[in-house]
Amino acid sequence: MGWTWQALQETPWYVRRYVWDLICARREAEHEANTRSYSKAGAP
To answer: What CA–CA distance (Å, rounded) separates 25 from 16?
Structure first.
């Protein structure tokens, strides 16, 4: 992406928080989808 570490550190806190919240929501949705598909497969 071409970002330097300095540029990332200078990103405003609210942008970092927004992106972090999106990442967490995506991971949670993926986890729930995997759990549902695992239980549908008849796993114990």
So the answer is: 14
Helix (H, G, I), strand (E, B) or coil at 20: helix
Is the C-alpha dihedral spanning 34, 36, 41, 44 positive or negative? Answer: positive
Encoding tokens for residue 31? 């986890």
The per-residue pLDDT string of the chain (44 residues; one tens digit each, 9 = 90 and over) reads 688 999 989 999 999 999 999 999 999 999 999 888 777 766 55
Tokens read off for 41: 């497969």
Cα–Cα dist 18/15, whole Å:
5
